[in-house]
Design goal:
Blueprint (H helix, E strand, L loop, with lengths): L7 H7 L25 E6 L14 H7 L5 E2 L2 E2 L1 E3 L4 E3 L4 E6 L7 H17 L3 E6 L5 H11 L5 E5 L19 H7 L9 E5 L6 H8 L3 E4 H5 L3 H12 L4 E6 L21 H11 L5 E7 L10 H26 L1
Parallel strand pairs: 1-6, 1-7, 7-12, 8-9, 8-11, 9-10, 11-12
Antiparallel strand pairs: 2-3, 4-5
Helix pairs in contact: 2-10, 3-4, 4-5, 8-9, 9-10
The structure holds manganese (II) ion.
Length: 329
């Protein structure tokens, strides 16, 4: 695992307000740091120093929030999803702002991301994390695995496996989060699934999945498969394991999501992504969500941020349905 110590010089800086972002709360939610029995909490992680090609996801949280509708009334969240034919009016939410990161300190950043997500879980609240590059899911998985006392499964939408081969120095970049999480005992590969994998990568990433019982639906397979079949395979693999959803926006084809650092052609439409979420997730034991790898600089007409922002609303529909089902039982 990473070195957990935070140098004194950094500790002093952490109390300071972030100066590079003026935050507009997601969806008009209350922007605050104290919890009052919220169902979910939005957390921004403006981190992009582990990208391997084009950087810029530090502005992901800002651009995703900017595209959000104001759906909050005095009594809480209220919006109707036409696609799901579901009224979301049983959730209370908040936006806690961004993790106060300090550039140049990779391991300190991992520690701070872990602490911030753990803080949300300690308040029995579901985290919805806006990235940031994909390494941020590694410390997120640590927080979940500690909160639930076991390795956590994931439903992972991406064009890349993000399990780049072990090397002696255990480096951290946005291609390694799930290899690191598995090595540290945070990831339950036997109930996890990766969807949309494609492009030009070494074989060892698929070998890693096979070796550890992690299911992979490649892009080629998914293009030939119905959405119903994909949803069924996700549900079979996850079963009743506690699971998080981690969504790298490069799961989409670059025609739908150009605003990202390592796009790969041959991907999926916004509709397909939303429909898989709608069909696969309700009823699963979903403990949290993230959306990562959104950049501003490569995002003409803010299309990628718009997709990501509405993806969060799809997540809220799932949370709302699951909460309603629990209350019926
Ligand atoms: Mn990824």
């Amino acid at each position: 695992m990473w070195n957990e110590s935070i140098p004194e010089s950094v500790k002093k800086m952490l109390g300071e307000k972030s100066t590079n972002l003026d935050i507009k709360a997601y969806g008009g939610l209350p922007l605050k740091e104290t919890f009052e029995h919220e169902d979910f909490c939005i957390l921004g992680v403006p981190y992009d120093t582990s990208t391997t090609r084009r950087a810029g996801t530090r502005f992901g949280p800002r651009s995703i929030r900017k595209q959000s509708y104001n759906f909050t009334t005095d009594t809480g969240v209220c919006f109707y999803s036409q696609d799901a034919d579901h009224l979301v009016n049983n959730l209370k939410g908040m936006d806690i702002g961004d993790v106060k990161l300090r550039s140049g300190y990779t391991e300190v950043s991992l520690q701070l991301i872990y602490q911030n997500v753990k803080n949300i879980l300690d308040h029995a609240t579901v985290p919805i994390v806006l990235g940031g590059d994909h390494i941020i899911t590694y410390p997120e998985l640590r927080a979940y695995s500690e909160a639930y006392n076991r390795p956590i499964a994931m439903i992972h939408f991406d064009s890349h496996n993000d399990t780049t081969e072990q090397s002696a120095d255990r480096f951290y970049n946005h291609g390694t989060p799930f290899r690191r999480a598995f090595e540290d005992g945070f990831l339950d590969t036997a109930h996890s699934i990766q969807i949309g994998i494609r492009g030009y990568m070494d074989k060892h990433r698929l070998a890693f999945a096979n070796e550890h019982g992690m299911k992979v639906i490649t892009a080629r397979e998914l293009h030939k498969m119905s959405i119903e079949e994909c949803a069924a395979q996700i549900r079979t693999q996850v079963g009743d394991a506690p699971v998080i959803v981690t969504f790298d926006v490069d799961f989409l084809d670059p025609i739908y999501a150009p605003g990202t650092g390592t796009p790969v052609a041959g991907g999926f439409s916004s509709y397909e992504a939303y429909e898989i979420i709608r069909q696969a997730l309700p009823g699963l034991d979903v403990k949290g969500f993230d959306i990562v790898e959104v950049t501003e600089d490569y995002d003409p007409a803010e299309l990628t941020a718009l997709f990501a922002s509405h993806l969060v609303m799809q997540y809220l529909v799932v949370l709302s349905k699951n909460k309603a089902d629990k209350e019926v039982k």
